Structure formats: C-alpha cells, structure tokens
Amino acid sequence: MRFVRQLTALKMNFKKSIAILQKVSPKLTAKIAFNFISKPEKRKIRTFEKEILEVAKKSVFRFNKFNISTYKWGKGNKKVLLVHGWGGRASNFGAIIPELIKNNYQVTSFDGPCHGDSTRKKTSFFEMADLVKLFLEKDNYDLIMSHSMGTVLVFTAMNSLKYKVNKMIALTTPSRFLEFIGLAVNQFGLTKKTTKLLIDKIQETTTEYNPINHKVKNVINNIEIKDITFIHDKSDKIISIEKTKQVSSFFSNSKLIEIEGTGHFKMLWSKKVINIIGQETLNIQEI
Length: 287
Hints:
By secondary structure, the protein is an alpha/beta fold. The protein has helices spanning 2-24, 26-38, 47-54, 97-102, 125-138, 149-161, 178-188, 192-203, 241-248, 271-280, and strands spanning 57-63, 66-73, 78-83, 105-110, 143-147, 164-171, 224-233, 254-259. Residues 1-10 have low confidence and may be disordered.
C-alpha cells in the first residue's frame, strides 16, 4: 500500500509539473507528450508469454529503422495474423495461441516498432499501420485478430490494400485516432492549445493520413470482411464499450459479445474469452 501511495503521489507531482510547464511553454510540453506516445513503455512480460515465445519460430526483418521481431506457431492449413495494441507485444496473445493451433491455424504475429523485442526507437501509430500493411501484402489470411488500437491499425492497413478476409475478431476497439491521443491528454492533463500542438507534431510524421479525421468509419469503405466479431468488457476503463458498439454498427455482418470481469488487458488471458475465440474460429467459411 505504501508503494501505491508513493506512486500515486509521484504521478500527481508529475502532472502538477506539466501544468506549470504548459503555462510557460505549451510547445515544449507538446514535445514531451509526443516523445511519451512515440516510445511506449515496455511492460513486464508474464510467465505464459515467456512460455509461448520459447516455442515460437522466430525471425527478424528490417523495416524502416527497425529490426522487427516476428513469430510463427503451428502448422495448420488456415492462417491467422495477430496484431497487438499500442504498448503491447505479440506474446500478449500467449494464452489464446494454443486454442488457435488446436483449431488448425498457423499463427503469425510480430512486435511492432518500439514494441516487445523489436528495436526501441521512436515510432508512430501510422508507421505501425504501414507495418501491418506489409504483412497483409505478403500473405492471405483466413483470420485476423486484433487488440485495442491494433484494431484501428488493421482497418487502416486493410482499407489501403482493399483487403478481403473471411473472419476478424476484434478484442476492443477505439472509434477514432483522437482517442489514442486522448490517452496522452489525460496522462499529462494537456490544455486545448497544447493538444493542438501535439496533433500538429503527429501530423508531421505522416503525409498519407490526417490524425484529426482518422476515424474507423472513414477507413472501412474498401475492405471486405465476411464475418466480424467484437469482444469487449462492459467495465473496460481504457476504452469504453460504447466505442466498440459504435464501430460494430458500421458493419452489417458484425456481432458484439459483451463480457464482464476481465477489463482491458486481462481479457487476453481470460478463459471466458479463450472459449469464445475457440467457438468463433472452429468453422470459418471462405469469402
């Protein structure tokens, strides 16, 4: 409890310092926030994640300024691509992968730029979307599974390629890119002026996308998904279930499964979710 109190006090002091800095230099504050979201924190890896990595077929390839770690499991005749969220890594799906292998899938995943075991350098949301696009260009997948911001990455990449897939399972999803920026806004307590400066800095990283107008409903016009299932915890404190309800409504062939007691991250190793995925991936018809 003492550690928790100390950590809470540290966060409060940090936020107070940022509030003072914003009054002096909103531009510098925006730069600090930009650096924060450009180099996501490397999270502690859990035991089941270590175990799944130990049995993976690993490889590395060069993408921009990064060495990208990739992983494969299983020898099934169906193919699935797993896309982690911002701040995540391929092994986050470690509890789900055995279920996919059991259902005759060959599983492919990767650690995004500045994520997991890939090179730790500054990156951007749109750079990661381009990486997803690269994987989709190289292969045809029967199933794509994503978590959190990874879902928007997938939609963005698929739309660019006019990609077709039989099945997609989205474990939560934001409805627009600005919700990603909102995490930094809340973390730092940014003012409207500083937030605009932050968005301007993000805009400098891409010529293809507009951060302000980058919404899911605008990047699904050129994709074809025969069947899409959304899974979201009613009490998710990171992304409201209302966001997934909204995105689900954009698809005429979608299904939303509402769960409880798992939150945003624990759903990835929840037996309840694993069982749902098992049923959802048993029989997938070709598009």
